[in-house]
Amino acid sequence: MSGEGTAESEKPDFSGKYTLLRNENFDEFLAANGANWLIRKMATNSTPTLDVTQDGDKFHIRLASLVHTKEAQFTAGEPFEETQQSGAVMKVTPKWDGKKLIMTYEPKEGETTGKAQTHTRELEGDELTLTLEVEGVTAKRIFKKIP
User: What are phi and psi of 65, to 5 degrees?
Assistant: First the structure.
C-alpha cells in the first residue's frame, strides 16, 4: 500500500535542489559495498547536486557529480528494479516510516555482486540527510537545499 503508515498530510516534501555539505563514514560504506579505492576517492571528493521532484508518493531523484550521474523514478509503496554502478541488479522497495523515506535494496534473485542495504532520507529544516547502511556499516550524506 502506498504511503503505508503515514498520513498524506504528515509526508514531507523533499522537492528541491540540494548540494552536498559533508559525508560521514562514506568511504567505509563504499568499501563495504565493494567499491575499489579509485572509485571511493572520486566519490568521497566530489560535491554532487541532488535534484528531487516529488508529487505525493511519486519521486524523481537525480544525483549528479563530475564523475557520475544517477537517476531514479519510483512511487513509495511500489517495488522497482535498479541497476547499480557495479552492474548489480537490485529490487528496491521504497516506503514511508513516519516522515522518513526508507528504501530497502535486495539483490535480485540470482544476483551475486549486489549487497542488501538500506537508504533512508529525512528532512530537518533545509537539510536532507541520506543515511546509508550495508553489512553493519552506516554512513551519512548531508545535503543543504539551494534557495
Answer: -135, 180
Q: Which H or E run includes 32?
A: helix 26-32
Block residue for cell numbers 512511487? 75
- CA-wise closest residue to 51 among 63, 69, 68: 63
Helical residues (DSSP H) of 33-136, grouped into ranges: 37-45
Q: What angle do CA 113, 92, 86 make, to 5 degrees?
A: 30
The per-residue pLDDT for range 5-19, each reduced to its tens digit, is 566 668 999 999 999
Separation between Cα atoms, residue 87 and residue 78, nearest integer Å:
22
**Global model pTM greater than 0.70:** yes
